[in-house]
Amino acid sequence: MDRRVFLLALAGLPVWRGARAVDFAPVLPGRRLVFPADHGAHPDFRTEWWYATGWLHVPDGTPLGFQTTFFRVRTGMGEGSPSAFAPRQLILAHAAIADPRLGRLRHDERSARVGFGRAGFESGHTRVWVGDWRFEQTGERYRAEVRAADFSYALDLLADDPPVLNGRAGFSTKAPDSRHASYYYSRPQLKVSGSVTLEGRSQSVTGHAWLDHEWSSELLPDGAQGWDWVGLNLDDGSALMAFRMRGRDGRALWAAATFRPTDGPARVLSPVDIGFEALRQWRSTRTGITYPVEWRVRIGWRFFHLQPLLDDQELDSSRSTGAVYWEGAVRVMEAGREFGRGYLEMTGYGERIRIG
Amino acid sequence: MKLAPVFLGSLARRRVATLFSLMAIVLGVALGMAVQAVHEAALSEFGRGLRSLAGQADLQVVGPRGGFDEGLYAQLAARPEVADASPVVEVEVKLAGREDTLTLLGVDVFALARVTPLLLPRADEGGERFAVLADDGIFVSAAVRQAFGLKSGEAIRLQVGATDVTLRVAGDLPAAGDARRLAVMDIAAVQARFGRLGRLTRIDLRLVDGVEPGAVRDVLQGVLPAGVLVEAPEAAEDQAANLSRAYRVNLTMLAAMALLTGGFLVFSAQALSVVRRRTEFAFLRAIGLSRRTLFGWLVAEGAAVGLAGGLVGTALGYGLAWGALVLLGGDLGAGYFSGLTPQLQFQPGVSVAYVALGMLAGVAGAWLPAREAATVSPAQALKAGDEAALLGGRGHPVCGATLLALSVAACGIPPVDGLPLGGYLAVACLLAGAVMLLPAVASGVAWLLPARGPVPARLALARLGAAPGHAVVAAAGVLTSVALAAAMAIMVASFRDSVDQWLNQILPADLYLRAGKASGSGYLDEDLQRRIAATPGVGQVAFTRHESLRLAAGQAPVALIARPVSKDGSELPLAGRVHPGGEGPQVWISEAMQDLYGWQPGQQVDLPLAGRRVAVHVAGVWRDYARQTGAVMIDLGDYRRLTGDRLANDAAIALAPGAGASQVADALTTMAGARALEVARPGEIRAISLRIFDRTFAVTYLLEAVAVAIGLAGVAASFAALAAARRREFGMLRHLGLTRRQIGWMLAQEGALAAGVGVLGGLLTGGAIGLVLIEVVNRQSFHWSMDLHVPWGSLALFGVGLIALAALAAVLAGRQAMRQDAVLAVREDW
After folding, report:
1. Overall pTM surpassing 0.80 (yes/no)
2. Which of A59, A331, B47, B333 minimizes the number of CB atoms within 10 Å of its CB?
3. Residue B334 above 60 pLDDT?
4. DSSP of B204-227, one letter per residue?
5. Residue A90's closest chain B neighbor by CA?
6. Is domain A2-346 given the CATH code 2.40.370.10 in the classification?
């Protein structure tokens, strides 16, 4: 997932020039997340993202996958600069559409420093933008607007339920050592309506989406090669988030999951209750990287079989994060029948992500 | 019948004359080609640099050197027509402790990537992710690395004001090309560390697809403050091309004149050769050679010389261009493209054109003699003895006079597209008119000179009077080259003299201090200004602030000079009358402002100062040889009041009574860091300026030398051919009892007379051409006037030397011709 690519990229800086003088806000256990305030930006932390993924349907029934990601990055640079261009905070955004008819992703990215109205964020509620791309919240409704070279979309994402806190009440650890942690909540089962423009043709769409909001100052654990993450909206109204960190040998260093049942409070699972098993490999002809695109994910005693909407959902973000990864729409099968839809993300299958 | 040996072979038989014609054409073509190749190389390099700077920008918002308010960026970037906007702070930065500068661009890499991606910096291996945002990291082009021997991670010290900042080389500019001294840094760092807070110098705009730049331009211009303009990215390239074009065209015109002389030499050689071969042609005609074929072959002789000259000249031109690029740089020393290392490129089209020009000169030169030879009836030509009926006759005095009159009219033609075409037309008319009038002048001279003295002298004089055709051919070559050389000498002498006087006038103080070049990153802040004024031994100090103004789209920036100026401007090198205004601020404009913007003394004009239009009164015009794009001078007090800018670039220091210049200079130099402040005496500045002047005119001097060489070659060739044609005459004179010595003496006088007529005509024509160059060509090309200064001494020496050489050449040629036995020479024709 590019958010974590980003985190990892930030993580590896051996000498963070200027960072020595900067105190990033620490991620501490026990801090209670307060809404709507925590929907807004947390500029004292090093990095933060709002990350929406989901399935859409055009009127003729064809499914599409979409991704909208906004990063806020405090660079630790220019903190004392008197210039209005000082690069203290950056906004980076990625957007993609997975279209089975095209057979690959359409994607684009934007990045800018905060200032002069070119990019910015707000506290107190979700509002983040770069150029004419924006992601903002009004009440329980989010709006994502993206205008890229070969696609554009404007989507409304409506939340019926309160946020699901991951980890210990939103304190989400990334390694056995709880120093590596973030504040992290999800908003599953968002109802989507809006329009998508492909090849110059605008169509109205409906669907379901997933929103993550996460912020941290911490670096990821040493020795992490990559990770696998899923966010699944299940047909019965329940929702599952699960991820695992992989070491260089491909084995899990750490895993975490949150399951929110149809009714009742979310349940946080311990690493032993989570299993990721790869079922089928797909090799990218562009990069030569092989990804496991079909999975069996075990959560406690339940098994979810994940099948991609299309195999080629590889994303090359060499212009911003510099990483190549797989980020795509998946169908969820349980006991041989389709039981939900969601997004799968896999990193570190090619080279180890460039540090710094 | 094989005719090639008959005709083309004749070229080989008169080797000397052919060689000189060839040389003249080679030189003309070579010079033209060299100027063209060098300039093309420089311009294309300059253009490439600009294009990579402009990238995919559809429009550029530009302002004065000091820039404009950064708030404009937010305003423009938010407009619906604008897809992407990239803000830039450009500073010409001086390296601390060195003379060299580099162009530093403060950029926002995120915006840059979408508008001018070729400028994107690349961090070195192992660099951090946000290295491009660091406020101490600088990214440099290959040219900078080479020029200053910098390696990655090394420190580089740059001057700001009179202090310096130390930066680290953090990476390179992989796509920016190798030729420019360019560096890129984060925009916030440049603003904060180079004293440019809140300022931008440029915004590159990429427009939304389908939006017409022309239409948007007007809309955007409407929202911009005074002095900030929207331009098409090509504008800068055009400005540079326009600026240097006049210089290039001037040089090319000189080369064209050399070529013209070459054509003329072909003419004179052919004319004489054709006369000599009259009998030969008559035979050929008698045995059936058609008139047309004879004409064709004679023209082909000239064409062969021209073609050979064109080929050799073009090759030589590239060689010269290569040498000039290595020695003088892309602007042939004129300073238009500093900081560039252009690559010479073979230009097939232009090369072919120059070869063709050489051939054209040969054909044109051979045309008239060929026609003459072809029209003579064989029967008449077989009766030998009328070589005297040479081309030229009495010339065309009416036609010549008309051309001279036309040249006066041509001087009144205004510049066409910035080029003084009228001036060049006048020069061409003057030359052609003078050549046409030459026979009449020759007869006049012969008529005026007393017909006394020894026989050889009388014979020589009689010959000039009776058969001016001979003399004309020789003298016309002399006239052309003398005129060219004299005109250039007068122009350069006037220019140099005027610059010298001007330097004396603008450098009245005892010492001058500056913080690097006016356009650079050095400046004197208020504290330093106070300390300079308080330095012991310093009497009066006049500070100068250099800014630039954008007055019209598509025009290069105009220099704004703020310094103390008296109400009547009496200390300035004024040109014309003064119209001091009333109470409001007044400005003094350079002559270029008159030509380019039509400003006149006494007029009220708007000056964009600090983003506002300020009405100022034009008090007078001053002469400025330093800035061809125009300069406006304003009193420093007025400037500071209107803009709030309290910095200065230079200081003119008058010493206190009794103070020693060198002690004060030392005290001032040590006031700031090593070599941050340059202190110079007016004498040094003057010497440097004149050295630069001489270097700029090095090419002109070279052309002059070539013109002289061609002139001499012309005289020698003409006389050689003439003497050869007169073998029978010499034989006859020997029979009549003249000694060889007497004939030699006669020849020397003939040569001196012909050359004298040519030199006289050449000097007169040259004087007139010099005036045209000064008053029309220079004024229209570079927008400055100068006082006429004729280098009488050197011109006289040149003229006398040329006459003596002509006499010598005539004698030598005659000796060659008289080697044959006199009896044989006479007999061979009977």
Report:
1. no
2. A59
3. no
4. EEEEPTT--HHHHHHHHHHHSPTT
5. B110
6. yes
